[in-house]
Amino acid sequence: MTQFSLVPSALMYEFEQEIKKINHISIDISSIEVFDMKEVSNFKPKFNPPELGLIYLISYLYILYYEIANVNIKYLIGKFDAYNVDPDNTCNTHRKLVHDLRTYFNHSILFNKEGDSKILLGCHRWFYSCCQTAVPDKDEEWKICLTILLEKAVCFVKILLECVKSIERDSSFREEIGKEWQFFRNKNYSPYKLDQMIELIANDMGREYIDPSKFRKKYYDRWKRELDFRRDIFDYDIEMRKLIEASIVNEIIPTIPITGDDIMEYFAIGPGSEVGAVYRKAQEIYFKEPCKKDELLQKLKTYMEGDH
Amino acid sequence: MNDEVKLFEKVKKGPVILFLGQAYLKNADGFDPFLDSIVRKYGDGAPEGELSYDAILDTQIAKSNIVESALGWMQNRCDRLDIPPWIKVIGDFSWNSVFTSSIDPVFSRVIRNEWREFHGVYKEDDRPDDYRNRVRLHCTFLYGYVNRSDDRERPPLTKIEKLKRKQVSTLLLNRLPELVTPIGILIVEGYNVVSDWVSMDDWLPIIEKLDKMQTHFFNVKDHFYQNELFSYLVNSNKIIPHEENLSDFLLKGDELGFFKLGSRPYSHDERGTYVAINSKSYQVPKDVFTTVTQTAIILDENIFIEPKKLSEDNLYFEFRNFLSECSNRMMWEGYLRGFNFRRDYEVNLKTEVDKLLKNTKLDNKILLLHGQTGSGKTIALGALAVKIGKEKRFPVLFIERRYENLPYEHIDAFCDWAEEMGADKTLIIWDGMRNWESYRNLRSYLVSRGRKVIIVGSSYKIKDIENLKHSFEFAESTPQLSTVELSRFFGFLDNFDKNLSEIIEKNMSTYDHNFLVALYRLLPSTRKMIRQGMIEELSYTESILREKNPTLEVNLTNFGSLGKELIKAGIIKKDDKFVGDKGINLGSEVLSEMEYLTGLIMIPGRFGLRVPFELLIRSLEKKYSQNVASLFEKFDLFRFSEDVKGNIFVHARHSLEARLIVQSKFGSTKSEMEFIKRLISKVKDEYSDRSNIEIEFILDLLRYIGPNSEEKPKFGTYYNEIYMEFEKLRKERAIHNPRLMLQEAYFMREYVISNDCISVYEKNEILANARKLLNESLKMISNNKSILKSYILIEIASNLGASLHNNPDDANSNYRNLYIDIKDNLNIAQRIDPDSYHAFDVLCWTTEKLLQTPDIDESFRIETEANIIFAFEKVEAENFEILQKQKFAVRKDKIGHLLDNKEMEQEAFDALIKQNSKAGIYLRAKRIVHDLPFDQELTDRQIDDCKRAVEYLQESEKIYGLDGRCFYLLLRLFWMKNTGKPIFFKEKQTVSFTKSNWEYVLSLIDRLYYAGDKSEFVTAPLIYLKGLASFHLGLYNDCFAAFKEISDILAFGNRRVIKSHLASNENGEPIKYNGTVSRIFEDGKGELYVDNIRRTISFSSREFHLQNPLLNETINDFHIAFNFLGLKADPARKVIK
Fold first, then answer.
1. Chain A closest CA to B86's CA: distance in Å?
2. Is B108:B141 a contact under the CB 8 Å cutoff?
3. What is the DSSP code string of A37-81?
4. Is the Cβ of A96 closer than 8 Å to some Cβ of chain B?
5. Which helix (DSSP H) or strand (DSSP E) does residue B32 occupy?
6. Predicted ipTM?
7. Is the pLDDT of residue B204 over 50?
8. What is the pLDDT of residues A139-157, one digit of tens each?
9. Edge-to-edge strand ranges of the sheet holding B638-642
């Protein structure tokens, strides 16, 4: 259990001061502000009552860590090993906890879903470690959790500050790192910038009803992967626009005349990844030349026997 | 299955080895940030065009001789490079091993994570014993590594250095085929056919050794085909080229669910491993996790997470899969889904375990689940682990069947941690199918380190239960389903398809002992087939079989239910013989390749053993080893498994199946022996440490057919063939492994003992050769405390004993020397392992033999009798572990009878005394105190006896001089006379000795140091007494020196941690001490400085209930307790007066 040296508001003040220091140095290194605090200027957590305060704090940290500064934080974490910062991996653990706590409070968790169960268990373990109960329900207990989370958040930004200071001092590689950081940032769009792009493109294509934020969340990983794994040099804005447009057009999922059941029965294979792989091939065949169920199965069989 | 799916499946199964070429950091435009930086810094100008590794040769680094600083700079540069996403994806896969021609540490940064360690291999001498370990990933740097500064490990920086390094690179690259094996996959990424330092010329011999479709080059460019060798290998299907990047391929596999990128291979959660102890969650520290998971499965909380819902078809599929695999590996999800049919005996098993877990004793009994093969022991133990784990009170470890010596220290590390977290006990379930002694040894080890454990083991049916009841509880697994179980069983089947029970019932005429194992083969492969009707399906299979072979007379009843299913599956045929050309000579037989392969796997398989894959491949003839993978696919008969170190094994689905197959195909012992010999002849002794799985496998196999096995009547006549095979290993292949040499000598002795057809001369020669061999093997062991050394010494003694057996007529001429040799060897063995019953047993049977020898010299007979009586006395005084054995009582009885029958006439005895015979004095004193207890307080009469005997021995001291037996007896009797208790009697005893008493004890001990052979009398318990006496006399230096002496000789034994005595005053009251904390260790243990004795002693904060002891914190009023490890602070409240 923590020793309450500071009240939440004092910790919050310290947290923000550290962020300011980080931003000053990062601008110096690469003209980048790690935390664009303008985006959260209207959103500051209140700590009373503490239960609500904790939920506010989690949302606030989530926005900072995963939306506003996600790209920069990832970049800096990638440098920890080089500067021997945070050998205990405190930053990643804290960041992951914020992610899990947000899911815990803001989403309905299903116990029979493996990922959810782990989040639930993880959060309960954390509550227990803070206030000796897995399910806090008293103000006192919530306050302890709130304070501990804030303390860890302060610790988190202090570690980031240590990292940017190390880069600042690293005269041999500082310049190269500055350039690399900018490059890294440019190819990783912030969610806000992406949402603006999506809104524009959706309007251009007459799909004003599309919710940019939901749409981004649905496709973001796929777009990112497409761009990340290209080893050639290209214009990120143009390529991203192409991807968004393609996703808007293909938003309605086309179906094919056979099901996984048909595949299992026709090819006498059991459930498993192979069914998915054959289904994917069936999609390819069908979209190239649409046909009826029997014909599709036959074509699929020919393909399989040919072992292409 | 199309090629891509096949490849995904193969990558999923492994082993899968990655080769990273020197272009792996390059983007599509050929830009390599690492090379670019080097050329900018150390080159002769700005870089131009696409760079290759040749650009780092002969730069300013070599010219200016700034190698060390330049390598440091390169390392720093790489540490600061942003890792490209595609490399992160490649790093997320759990590779078995990585080889690379690159020299930078970028990829190693990706490898290191929460669940995986990075280990570099830089030169030909580096040869890890777990080269394919996925969680201790070995990365072989063919051309060195910038993080190393040793000339043999750093990268070449001049053309000459590069040429020199090429030889090393070739040697290292040659390791690939063996690591990939015929079933694995080699994946090459980041390779440039033109510029990579590993050229296609280098690749050719490596890839030629692999089978078609085993080598996959990714990111292949058009210009690759301009290389003649590359095109040749592609055209011959030896290289499969892929245009796509490896990262894309891996992402696709992840998306389709073939494997999960970024997840630890042997556990589930990146959040860590948590274990519930007394309903609270504790995270297992990484070091403990890494250690223990090499040996055992931790039943962590993730195992108990409710599994996701499945469609009915998938549920049935998974159920059948569970039946197929559950005897080979633990499928925890299956237990949660209720795939395990609960047998009635499991209720009893759980009740017994609950009882043991509630028991507060330190030294608990072991629970042994025993029963014949196929009776469901593994499933029952799995279910037990899940049940106890789910209760969240006790931590549970599950140890699967394996072939290495179980590293006890791994288990100890986990139990120690669990106890620190507050666990009252740890449940260890070891499905080892071992002899009961293995479980006892594990318990002894753990208990001797103070661990609180309950061990549940598995074993074949044990007959002499009564003899083992003192240290074991038993539960029996019955193979036959009872009527009640059968009716429950049909209800159970209907959970997976409502028609299933009806179909099974219609098809089965009997439910014999093989039924549960056969179930997998009874069930159709998909649920849809059930709907189509299983009866038709089975008849169809049978008719096809008959069509293929009209002469086939399938007498199904001969094989039982499992046999029927194997016949229907085409695995067994009544007339036997697999299809295929006969071309392999084995002994006098000529076999087809499939027959041969089957024999190599199924003969060990019938004992439940898994054959190390490399050994299997070496045992196959070269022309067959390449296409072995296709042979494996032919029948649903063999199973592969990979252990946590990446070792691959091939085995039968179930030992019962293996037994049936062996019976039907290789009926004769001679045939089986030929296969066993072939496996022995191919064993590899590359690594000298104990983790050589091939040697472990061979030793296990021999255990199952050896002199102490049930198979001895069958294999006994072939023991000479076994030791000759070992001899060949030594002489023809120069394999000198002490463990194998011990086996060789053991089988030589057994052959001599059990064979009456060879002459005495021959027998003596064989035994003498075996002794020579054993002495050679002793020289190879440098560690004086090695248990193997103890085993070899015991074998030498047994061999000498066999010589006594062998030469009854000549015995008189040399029995005296033989006997002395036997004793000497056993004394040293017992010093290393005082709990060894085996050493004691050898002394007993050799003495028995000697005493039965006619015309033995009378004075020697008396000496021998005195010695054996003394041996029993020593055991009774010191060794609880041996005392607990039923065999001990039997031996004692036997020796007792032997001595009684030959009881000396009083006159003869008196004559001996007149002759000042030391043995005579010892025996007379023993007669006075003939019935002293070893585990209870003495009666008044017994104390009087002790007094008389002490007086007698003190009076005769001048006669017996320095006779150790007499002094030992005097010491023991003096102690008992004054305390009324045995020396080692329960825990935390106090001794009401005066100063002169202690001085007398010490003087007796001192004299024992000079009495005859030190190894016989100066044992750990005696040195302990020396320490205890010195302490009570204030001779603290001597006291601490004594405990140091114990630690130098003793490695094993329960007594190590049992606190036998407390420091006490003349009245027998424990003395209270005060101290201050002088050191604190991470595990909660520490040291206290004790003012009164001006020394530090150890303490455990847990025993004092101190959560966070501080340095210099004062601890008052504690006692000082003594065990074999030394002095320990003991909280006063715990004293048992």
1. 6
2. no
3. GGGGTT-----SSHHHHHHHHHHHHHIIIIIISHHHHHHHHTTTT
4. yes
5. none
6. 0.73
7. yes
8. 999 999 999 999 999 999 9
9. B611-612, B648-652, B638-642
